[in-house]
Amino acid sequence: MKVPMTTTTISELIAQCAAYLAQEHDAATANQYAWWLLEALTKKSRAVLIAQQTITLDKHQAEVLSEWLDDIVVQYKPLAYVLGNTPFRELTILVEAPTLVPRPETEEWVSSLIERYKPLTYEPLRILDLCTGTGCIALSFAHAFPQASVVGVDIADHALALAHKNAVHNALKNVTFIHSDLFSELPPTTRFDLIVANPPYIAHEEKESLPLSVKQWEDPRALFADEKGLALIAAIINQAPAWLSNNALITKHALPTLAIEIGHEQGTAVVELFEKQGHFTAIECLRDHAGKDRVVMGSMKRGVPSPD
């Protein structure tokens, strides 16, 4: 789309951009995207833009906005990659292809867990985030629990580099990022009060049904898993008990706990994996605002020896 450099009203420019974006998105999403793009382009808030009523884009601005619109509509580039960042709770998370873009559904369950453990805000918790990606989950817990020691791990070097950038960008110093295939590179004596994970959980067979913005841009290693999407989930459940703490001070808050994000039809299967493992109690499947299975969590049974 070629964006004009003539003076126009804000509402007209938004309408033009939204109409173009509506080729790939519903009307409400297209309108929201149009506003976010214009705010990013002008570095002005929506309120300021509405108040000024009219706008004249210079040549550079017009070219950039045109490129952004074509990236989204023609190249199917996710908006977060276009803008270079996305909000996640109180943080601004930098995003770069192909590291997985943080999802609102993930933000929802992370917020739910943070609220659940709010009484422990200033306790020296030890938290592990598996498959950390951008670091959004690890950094959210580090921000919410300033006395906690948070570790994020990933196997992708580009993801770890981005997670480090995000720690610096959000001025969080109580988080460390480590290259590790799940627990493999962690110090063997390390134990955690809370382990969270957003692993790959999409079955390979579902690839063709995914939007082009996902399958053409995001790292397949962060999306797909064997065994109908359950391979990494099962590995985490089976290995996690050896890495969970025996911290008597936090048992009244149902910690230590393992929480794993899942696909919206995997709840029953993942609950069964937790039960079969044998070291977990208070197992529950939490649903998101859309009523879909989103995270399964379980607490370590007391008095059960940790596996080797």
Q: What are the key terms here?
A:
308 residues, Helicase, Ruva Protein, domain 3, two-stranded antiparallel ribbon, seven-stranded mixed beta sheet, Rossmann fold
Helix content: 25-40%
Beta-strand content bin: 15-25%
Give the CATH class of the largest domain.
Answer: Alpha Beta
The largest pleated sheet is described as: 7 strands, mixed
Strand order, sheet with most strands: 7-6-5-8-11-13-12
CATH-derived architecture of the largest domain: 3-Layer(aba) Sandwich
Q: How many strand elements?
A: 13
Query: According to CATH, what is the topology of the largest domain?
Result: Rossmann fold
Structural class: alpha/beta
Mean pLDDT: 94
Order of helices and strands: EHHHEHHEEHEHEHEEEHEHEHEE
Through-space gap between termini: 60 Å
pLDDT < 50 runs, ≥5 residues: none
Oligomer class: single chain
Structural domain tally: 2
**What form results from the Cα inertia axes?**
elongated
User: Radius of gyration from the CA trace?
Assistant: 21 Å
CATH superfamily of the largest domain: Vaccinia Virus protein VP39
Number of helical stretches of at least 4 residues: 11
